[in-house]
Amino acid sequence: MRNDDYSLVDIPSIEAEDTMSTRDATKLAAQASKATQRPFRKVLMMRHGEPLDAAFPGWTRLALLGDKYRPYDLNMPLNIPIRSLVAHIDDAPLSEMGRLTAQMVGRGLRLARLEPTMIISAPELRCVHTAAALIKSLNNKNKAATICIEPGLADWRQWQETPPLWLSPRQLADLGLPVDVQYEPHWSVSSLQSAESVADYGERVAAALHNVFQLTRTRDSGVVLIVGHGATVSSDRMSTVTELELADASVPYCSVRGWHLSDDSSTLMATLDHPIKPIHTSAFTIDS
Question: 3-state class of 234 per DSSP?
C-alpha cells in the first residue's frame, strides 16, 4: 500500500442489516419501473472535507521548509503536490480527517443505495480530494468512477487575492486522482472574474448547476454527486458578503443534501430527507 492510499480498515465484522421496509421496497420497485421509460435521477450536493488550512492556519510557515514538506501533526497528509508557496496557501489539500470523513460519506452513500454514477467537483484541491476519497468507499463496479472538474462551481473569487492557481485536470490525473481529462467544462478558468459581486457569484454557481443538470440528460446518470463549497450546499439567501459568510459557515464539512431532479433536468424537486446516516464524533486533541 502506498503512503497516500487511505481506506477504511477491513476486519471481520457483522454486516449492517438492510432495514428497508416492504413499503420502501415497493416504492423503489415502482420507481425502477418508471426508470425503464425515462431516467430517474437524484442530485446530491456535498461540501468538501476539512482542508489543511482550516485545521492548521499557519501550516505553510511551519511545514514548508524550502523545498521540503515536513508534517508536524498526524492530521496532516504524508504527501502533498509540489507547488508554489502561493498555490499552497490559496488552494490547500485536505487534512487526514477530511479524507476519512469523505470516505465515511462514501460508505454512507453505498449503504443508502445512492452511489453516484456521475461526479462533478469544483476545481479547488480540497473538493477534488474529497471526491477522490469518497470514491474509495464505493462498490467495486464504481471504483472506476471519475471526477469531472467544473470551474463554474469555484468558491467566491474575492476570497482569493491571486488569480486561480488550481491544478489542471491533467495535472490532477498525473497525481493519481481519478479525474476525467476528457470532460469539457461549461466554464473556463479564464472566464472567472476576480472582482465578481456576491450576486454575480450566486448567478455563476446557479448557471453552472443548471448546465450540470442538463448534462445528466445525455448520460446514464441515476445519481449525480456535486462536490463544492458551503454556499453551494446551503439554501440560505445570499446577497451580501455577511450572508455569504454565514451560509458558508452554517454547513459542516462533508454535509450532504439531496433532491429529485425534474424530468426536463431544469428544476430541483422534492428534497431527499436525510440521504445518509449522520456522522457523530467529539472534538479532541491527543498530545503526548
Answer: coil
The average pLDDT across 239-253 equals 85
Rounded distance between C-alpha atoms, residue 133 and residue 119, angstroms: 12
Total count of domains within the chain: 1
| Calpha distance 126→227 (Å, rounded) | 10
Farthest CA pair distance, the chain: 62
Q: pLDDT for 103-147, tens place per residue?
A: 999 999 999 999 998 999 999 999 999 999 999 998 766 555 899
**Which CATH number do you get for residue 265?**
3.40.50.1240
Rg (CA), the chain: 19
- Is 126 within 8 Å of 89 (Cβ atoms)? no
How many angstroms separate the CA atoms of 249 and 130, rounded? Answer: 18
* 234, part of any domain: yes
Q: What is the pLDDT of residues 183-216, one digit of tens each?
A: 999 889 988 877 889 989 989 998 999 888 888 7
Mean pLDDT of the chain: 82
Is 239 contained in some domain? yes
The region that residue 56 occupies, defined by phi over 0 for left and psi between -120 and 50 for alpha, beta otherwise, is beta
Q: How many CB atoms lie within 10 A of CB 185?
A: 19
CA distances from 217 to 204, 208, 262 (A): 21, 15, 11
Residue 8 C-alpha cell reads as 477504511
